[in-house]
Specification:
The protein has about 325 residues and is an alpha+beta fold. The chain has seven helices and 18 strands. A six-stranded mixed sheet has the order 13-16-15-17-14-18. Strands 4-3-2-1-5 form a five-stranded antiparallel sheet, with no helix packed on it. Strands 11-10-9-6-12 form a five-stranded antiparallel sheet, with no helix packed on it. Helix 4 packs across helix 7. The longest helix is centred in the N-terminal third of the chain and has 34 residues. The chain starts with a helix and ends with a helix.
Length: about 325
């Protein structure tokens, strides 16, 4: 009985030792993966604005890619990288001034993993790139764009002729306020997909104000007689389904109401007037007008894509925007 107990105890000890060896082996593999990639300097991530940077947060340098088809990133070397394993950002060229009241960490690439031990003191700085939730300070490096001020108007002068309300702006304390600064470079058109009676612009503005159960957020809601603004135009929203790519990080979102007791065509015309005013204010062209579909492949704005009765198609909408831009 005593000998069997000793034997069982020895076998148990051996099993634990094998388990420990497996853990140590896995740790060694991860360490080797991390150190097998050469280090880099911040200048290596100042890339062309039509390229994309991706990272899986194990690499000691990001990978530069030429395109993203919503499923995979294509590296400059032709290799494919799944969006399930990699986070992508597209550095876009801007020329703005940001300011902040306390020092900020410098990053060598626009991902949280690439924080350095260096900081930049409080003050005002010229930025030349925005990428996801980071901006590039000329000659210094990347900083998080959260809780920084940027010299971009947070609203527009209403030149649409349509009543525009700000009564239900999403509160500062809400989780739907990202507080990430943005220099708008695109306007993205959505439809609410909510055909219920009474699901107008006011209803959706109140939804965002009181706390949408969904994580989505957007800047404007438009119906056949009014416009409601929910977020400052110099802050990012979560609406495009493309992570921290330009749909979310560099575009203003307009939701068009499709409530059954409203007039869809007039709502679309009102949205076209708003889009024209925004493009004009930020010195953008109609070519920088996008559908939600363009960013993530979602069937949105559904009535325009499907050619539903009572809706104008996308080409007609863009023509209206272009014509309104000439009169704003």
């Amino acid at each position: 009985m005593t000998m069997q107990w000793k034997k069982d105890k020895l076998m148990k000890h051996q099993k634990l030792t094998i388990k420990q060896k497996r853990i140590l082996k896995n740790i060694l593999v991860v360490v080797l993966l991390i150190i097998s990639f050469p280090s880099y300097t911040p200048t290596q991530v100042i890339i062309k604005s039509d390229h994309i940077l991706i990272s899986n947060h194990l690499l000691s340098r990001p990978i530069e890619c030429s395109s993203f088809d919503r499923l995979t990133y294509t590296g400059l070397d032709g290799k494919k990288y799944s969006h399930n394993s990699y986070v992508g950002v597209q550095p876009l060229t801007i020329s703005n001034t940001i300011s902040f009241n306390s020092s900020k960490t410098l990053y060598s690439a626009p991902f949280s993993y690439y924080a350095t031990s260096n900081t930049v003191p409080a003050g005002s700085y010229h930025v030349t790139k925005e990428a996801g939730r980071y901006m590039y300070i000329e000659g210094k490096g990347w900083v998080s764009s959260q809780y920084v001020s940027i010299d971009v108007n947070d609203s527009i002068e209403n030149t649409t002729g349509i009543p525009l309300y700000k009564d239900y702006m999403i509160p500062d304390s809400s989780s739907h306020r990202t507080h990430y600064a943005m220099r708008p470079l695109y306007i993205t058109i959505h439809t609410t997909d909510n055909t219920n009676r009474g699901a107008n612009a006011l209803s959706h503005a109140k939804l965002q104000y009181t706390g949408n159960v969904r994580s989505a957020s957007w800047h404007y809601t438009v119906d056949d007689h009014s416009i409601y603004q929910s977020l400052p135009l110099n802050q990012q929203a979560g609406h495009a389904g493309d992570g921290v790519m330009p749909g979310n990080s560099a575009s203003i979102a307009i939701e068009i109401c499709v409530n059954s007791d409203g007039h869809l065509y007039i709502a679309e015309k009102n949205a076209a007037k708003l889009a024209a005013a925004l493009l004009k204010q930020y010195n953008l062209s109609v070519d920088q007008l996008r559908m939600h579909h363009d960013w993530s492949g979602k069937e949105c704005p559904r009535p325009m894509i499907e050619g539903q009765s009572g809706s104008m198609n996308w080409d007609s909408f863009k023509r209206q925007v272009y014509n309104y831009m000439r009169t704003v």
